[in-house]
Each structure stands twice: as C-alpha cells, then as structure tokens.
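Re: weekly structure request thread

Next one in the queue (150 aa):
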Amino acid sequence: MKAFLKNYRQSPRKVRLVAELIKGKRVAEALLLLDTLPKRASLPLKKLVDSAVSNASSNNSLIDPKDLFVENITVNKGIVLKRIMPRARGSASRINKRTSHVFITLTEKKIIEKIKEEVKSETEKKIDVKKEQDKKPKVAKKVESDKKSK
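Done, posted below.
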C-alpha cells in the first residue's frame, strides 16, 4: 500500500503541483488525470501509483484495486547536485540541480470509513460527558460583600 520514488531529478516544487492534484482521489481517477496532464512529473508519478497498487495486491490478495484511493502523497527535498556556471570577470555562480523524494500511501475506502466512525463515536462520548458536567448544580460561593454587611 506504500511506494516511494527517491532522487527523482526534478525540483520538489514542480512535482508537488502534480502530486496535490491526485491526493484524495481514487486510483482510477488519479491514473486518468496523470495520463492527460502535460507536466513532466506526471509519468513518474503514474508509475509510482501503479507500483503502489501492485504492492497492495501482492501483499494482500483480498484488496480490490477499485476500492483503493490515494490517502497521502508527500514530496520532499532530495539531494542537491551543485554545479558551477562561469560568469564575468572570472567569477562563478552556482547552479543547484534539485531532486525529489516522493512517498505515496494508498488505502481502502472501507477502512477509512470505519476509522471515521470510531473517531466520531469517541467525540460524541466526550461531548456527552461535558454536557453532564454542565448539568451538575454549582455551589454558590459567598460574596465578600455579604461578609462586610454582617
């Protein structure tokens, strides 16, 4: 259900544009979107999604690829190759050739729905406890002005 692509030779900023488009989508929708997208990062990300689907099916034969969706995709900075460009008067400026690390996790829709239901029931319990605490009568404290009048 997980796959990663390390040291992909494109800047993370450009790869994130494509990655944010497929986050939260079903696998079939994500693959279709990556096929039609005119960005350079779309092909490696498509291969990465395919790899994650094959990892999911090989690890667990009960998982149906139709139920899978992209739970999370993160693009982090990889190594930076430093190159030098000659400039005027014998000086030089540096060229950074950036790379990206891409991590993707796929999950079944059914599993996520179960987790959401559990979280919802826990929050409802907390709300019920707070309401019960609010209903308890509060003991009134004596006011200092009452003490002064006596």
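The radius of gyration is 27 Å. The beta strands are 2-8, 68-86, 92-108.
Next request, please.
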